[in-house]
Amino acid sequence: MLHNILLTTSRGIEDLARREAEMLFRVRGIKVNVEEKPFGVEGRLLVEVEESFYIDEKGRKREFNSATFLNENSRLLHRVIVEIASRKFEKIEEDEKDKALKRIYDFVSQIPVERYLKLSESFAVRSFRKGEHNLTSLDISKTVGRAIYDRLSKYGTPKVNLDHPNVIFRAELINEVFFLGIDTTGDSSLHKRPWRVYDHPAHLKASIANAMIELAEIDGNASVIDPMCGSGTILIELALKGHEGRILGIEKYMKHLKGARMNALAAGVLDKIEFIHGDATKLAQYVDSVDFAISNLPYGLKIGRKSLIPKLYMDFFSELAKVLGRRGVFLTTEKRAIEKAFKENGFKILHHRLIGHGGLMVHLYVVE
Ligand SMILES: C[S@@+](CC[C@H](N)C(=O)[O-])C[C@H]1O[C@@H](n2cnc3c(N)ncnc32)[C@H](O)[C@@H]1O
């Protein structure tokens, strides 16, 4: 038997998430079919996976739980949602609120949700909405919750628990596409890593850090630096992947550097990373050469005056040109400033893409 799993990730890295999912299942010998952006929805993947079994330590045949497997092993995903039903509602964006909600209620009412939880288990509905609708995500949660409640009432008294439910139904309305599933990830998205004890105000999502690592195509014992490492996300994720080569981080502000060390300690990789308190515009003072540089650069207002950015980038890339052996992967909103700094310092753009991060689309570059 086949079942469908909806995966969520950042917009712009669906291809990498697909590759990761295919690789994870291939290693287990399980056949999957992964579709990127089902119904054209960005940041989503639909996995069709065949039922498979394994023999446990007591010799019993058990069903292999693909959703748990992905939750435990993926570095690029945000959520793993087992699909119950999905459909496209033509023109729902034009509907009046009550009409749109009635269509959703009617659709959910005919889904056999009773198969997905025991009556003794409590449930909640979490929803996600994107598009030009006349309704809010709260409207969707309430309507879907009522449809599920009404249906379950035929079998007994359903239990709702909005704070600590046993089962989380996930309802998504993205433009005209409606999706209902069981959110196996829980309330904390997978990109929120348990090691994050220090919360940098501009920290990078761990999923995007891993996408940058993938795109760098780092080999074996290569050395890797994040010259503006903030709370250390990229370096910690790299160390957790088991990278064998030297891993270095530079950060200008002691507060963030201490935070990065605390995070690395919590992740169990502090001994794998060399953290340096320093200035990336004087990079050559700290390292003679490095194979790869991966960094989420300061941008926007977060470092103070935005007008400082072009000079910071120019100074940094002129230093980087002195020490970088292989490739660099950088993330920024400042397209013009970074492309000027690349050009004037002899870097060639090998790859460019846009990635959704914190409501913005940011530019990712791979250069050499
Ligand atoms: C966007 S944040 C990086 C966040 C990081 N990726 C994380 O997940 O925590 C950019 C960092 O660059 C640091 N920075 C700014 N100018 C710097 C410089 N000249 N040298 C080193 N670090 C610098 C900032 O203090 C900030 O922590």
CATH topology of the largest domain: VC0802-like
What string, H for helix and E for strand, traces the elements in order? Answer: EHEEEEHEHEHEEEHEHEHEEHEHEE
Bound molecules: S-adenosylmethionine
| Largest sheet properties | 8 strands, mixed
SS-derived structural category: alpha/beta
Number of domains: 2
Mean pLDDT figure: 95
Q: Compute the separation of the termini in Å.
A: 47 Å
Q: For this structure, what is the CATH class of the largest domain?
A: Alpha Beta
The portion of residues assigned to helices is 25-40%
Provide a count of the helices: 9
Beta-strand segment tally? 17
Overall shape: globular
CATH-scheme architecture of the largest domain: 2-Layer Sandwich
Low-pLDDT stretches: none
Determine Rg (CA atoms, Å). 23 Å
Q: Reading side by side through the largest sheet, how are the strands ordered?
A: 2-3-1-6-10-9-7-8
- Note the beta-strand portion: 25-35%
